[in-house]
Amino acid sequence: METRLSPGLPHQFEMHRSQYPSLFKNKEKLSMAKRVSEMDAKSHGEIVNSFLELEANYAVHWREVVCRKAWLVGPVGLCNEKLIEQSHRGGGNKSFRTEELLQWLDSKHAGSVVYICFGSMANLVISNDQLMKIAIALKESDRHFIWVIKSSDQEDYTDWLHHQRMGSSDTYIKPSSYRGCSHCGWNSTLEAISAGVPMITWPMNGDQFFNEKPIVEVLQVGVTVGAKEGGWYFEERQLIEAETIRSVIERVVDEGFEGEAMRNRAKELKEKAEAAMQEGGSSYADIRNLIGELMDRRNELLI
After folding, report:
1. 209 part of a folded domain
2. pLDDT band at 167 (very low <50, low <70, confident <90, very high)
3. How confident is the model at residue 165 (pLDDT cuts 50, 70, 90)?
4. How confident is the prediction for the chain on average, in pLDDT?
């Protein structure tokens, strides 16, 4: 399978051609993306849901090499300090018994629960056959788990599970209890980082393969299942075998050196994320700078 390096970036990531977003494979979509980029270049700058300590090299690259303004104001999810506010994000069922879930998590050994959620497009990107392999892996791993499944047409394969629809952030509010299987969407990635949760990475499409690379290779807070093909529909991607999934689960939940080192790195990132949003932190400062620039620009227009 053909691989390529990502040129001109602070880190050189090896990517399979099949992992690139679909817009790189479609002339019409690529043309539209170029037009969007041209319009972006005419803007005053970008407001980014990230924080300096997470990707300092890329912030410098954007400002000094691309020569564009950017304000890193995240993780914005940390603005919701109350557990009940966090659990109502993501469009989930507000009647879901959050307190019951938290009590259940508290009853489990730290880091022993596996959380699986593939985002809002899960019903398109996960086939029934793949669901079955995930189920087999979970059963063979003999781990407690929370599995978010959003499509009713998949219930025949999951009738042995007790599940209820919830927002994707519901189980990111008790990080000490679980490890997350993530599709590497940026919001989910930041939620896991903010919670200090090591990740099982399983990108599907879009920017998710690009997000996976620094998680696994630079930050080293995740283990990949080895997905090599991207696509908006499950017919476009290969099946990941149950044994592979089970093996990755064990590596992330492992109490040995690898698992402990990963957890320590995730904890350090969590502390940096929290500090960035507090007064005197990098994101706090960028928010103040952004407001100041907008006010100055407003005053210039009024003169």
Report:
1. yes
2. very low
3. very low
4. 83
Give me the pLDDT at residue 93, please.
Answer: 54
Number of domains in the chain: 1
How would you classify the pairing of strands 70-72 and 14-16?
unpaired
Instruction: Look at 256 and 94; give whichever has higher pLDDT.
Output: 256
- Written as six digits, the tokens of 277 are 């949003």
Q: Which domain holds residue 161?
A: 96-275
Mean pLDDT across 68-93: 73
Decide if 207 is inside a domain.
Answer: yes
The identity of residue 303, as a single letter, is I
First to last CA, the chain: 60
Alpha-carbon gap, residue 49 to 72, rounded angstroms: 6
Sequence letter at residue 228 = K
Whether residue 97 is predicted with pLDDT greater than 80 in this model: the reply is: no
- 221: CATH: 3.40.50.2000
Spatial contact of 101 and 172, defined as CB atoms under 8 Å apart: no
160 has a pLDDT exceeding 80:
no
Q: Would you say 119 and 183 are in contact if contact means Cβ atoms under 8 Å apart?
A: yes
- Determine, yes or no, domain membership for 137: yes
Q: Is residue 76 part of a domain?
A: no
